[in-house]
Amino acid sequence: MKNWKAISWIVGIPALIILLLIGIVIYEPMQDGISRALASKATVLALVSQEECESFLQDKVSHFPAGQTEEWYVGYMDYLYENGLLDEKVTLPGADSAEGYLTYGEAEKLVESISPALKGKARATKNNRDQAIPMDEWWLLYDSLLNAVDSGHQVTDGKITIYAMGGETEELQWSVYTSAGTMDCHGLMLEKYVDREVKALYRGKTLIWCDQPESDSVIYENVWITEGEDGKLLAYVAGITKELKTGLKEDEKQKVYNNIADLYLEDGRVKKVVVKKERISGKVLAVGTDFIEIEGYGNLPLSPTFQVFKTFGTFEKKQTKDILVGYDNQEFVVSKGQVCAALIVRQFDAGTIRVLLMDTGFHSTFHSSVVLKSSKDMSLTWSDGGEETIPAGQELSIDTGESRLGSGRLVVEPSDGAEISVQTIERGQGTPAYGGRLEIAATEQGLVLINELYLEDYLKKVVPSEMPASYEKEALKAQAVCARTYAYRQIQANGYSAYGAHVDDSTNYQVYNNIETNSRTDSAVDETYGQILTYDGKPIEAFYFSTSCGVTTDGSIWGGDPSSVPYIKSKLLGENPQGLDLSNQVDFSNFIKNKSYKAYDSEYAMFRWETYTDSEILEQKVTGIGEVREITVKSRGAGGVVKELEITGSEGVKTVSGQNQVRSVLGNTALKIKKKDGMEMTGQDSLPSAFITVEKEGERFHIYGGGYGHGAGMSQNGAQGMAKQGKKYDDILSFFYDGTQLQEVEHEPEK
What is the value of pTM for the model shown? Predict the structure, then answer.
């Protein structure tokens, strides 16, 4: 009897284990799958950007029932339905379906419809087709999808730190603040990932996937620390202010406030603070993507987590482009040989400007050699502390092989306020001479030559190059204010910061030192000292051009939103007794053909002009449509300027949009342009303006036009006409720049 009990015991234990295993298999819940919504989002972003998806769906009707079309996933799934990648009969468009799990069968159809190379990758079988594909299997499949379709690596695969989730508004509810910027994270629950570093997939500013954090520890590098209410520690990171828990004592907190620091966090709590207190300051000479050049320090590398903050007034996160070259209103935090942060500690005073001098003819910003000469001694210094005096009248010649350029830029300054002539450049006045100081730096393309000087001195060499010195004083003063306003904005724009300049000396910005200075233009600058035009307290875009056709256009001339420059409006420079609607083709044609129309600048030759062209000439630029047979103005902008032109050929039709393109396509150096005074002008590769009408006469096209330039802002000859009629410069400016105010900006020359 005992033997049978023993046998039963021995046999029963394995049987029990088998039953338990069967129970585990049957009753153990399946690993969570992935919702169709989230899978659709990931799939679409493997193919196109968020913006491209939205643009594709712009005029299409949603597949989802009314009342559900506002859900975040609708656009992604609609994109897949529209492109035949999801089948409505299999995957019903609706909330229940979208929030349910994607099946093996659906995953198979989805990826194989996108790429034949993915056949079999979904591992769908007869037995599992209707089962949810586990999340980890989906992301392995997605990796194969990216390899097949994302050859340009538009989807980024990397590590990011998650700082915070959501925001105060409903719009920000699905926003996540990360080390890669603020992202949309619809469909992802990330609260447990805050203050963690995670592996992630994202495209642009849309987060696709995050893996489980590998650790509860994270380092916040180069964070600005300040004091919050009740002595709480606040960290400014990724555009937000985080209130952090810390075990620091009060006296320890006082030592870290208002500093850049690295924060070591564990499970969301600050465990250690490493303050970076070493700061340097000096004039910024250049700002690159991975370096900054500071006078007295040379080129310094930037930390990979380099930050820029404005610390005076209202604290703000800024960008690298906001670091102004030529100024010392910034302090730099340095640690371990790298610049960790730039702190903008005071407002810049716009006292100086840095001009990149182009070669003869304004063809290039680079020079193969530079030869300088002055009537006074010149001091030459370079980055490693070297110094040399160049005697008066002696030439200094620098070429690309100059050894002293190896340690940085060369700085040349004349004594006793003299000017330095650049022997290797020719301008309209001959060999130009420059006040202030000159800097020479080496690049891979050649030498760059930079002139740093006082802003007001710069303007004295801009105004005569942009407007004849013989013009009325009030017109010259209006030009001086426009030039100063433009320069003020360009200093802040930092257009050539990589080379250490704000502007160049060509028509790309404002023409500088092409024509000799004049006492009349000097006076115009002096009498408007420091004055700029503002709108709502901010400097305006002071656009100007040569001559109008009797009307100006608005800020949409370059295709942008005119509300961004509300002070640039279409203005008639004469009367409109007939009530012409210049957006109407017939009215504009009558207007532009009228050579007797009286306006402020109607006495100038370019006020009206005309020319002829033909198919043979047009075909040099209008290709692919055969013989040109018709030119039709399809739409006009404010003031009648052509916005869209249709050119019909024997083999097709081409549409030309925008005033620059219209002028370029219709223009040709072979054209003879007859001006209002009867004189002819040739050699213009572009039409003088886009204020035109076109009529076919036999085999030729007769173009009637008026004005010279883009037509937005101030007509320089219109300003001259107003000044001749006794208008003051402030009246001229308020006419052309609607709703603006003159404001004096205080700037003291640097010592």
Answer: 0.78
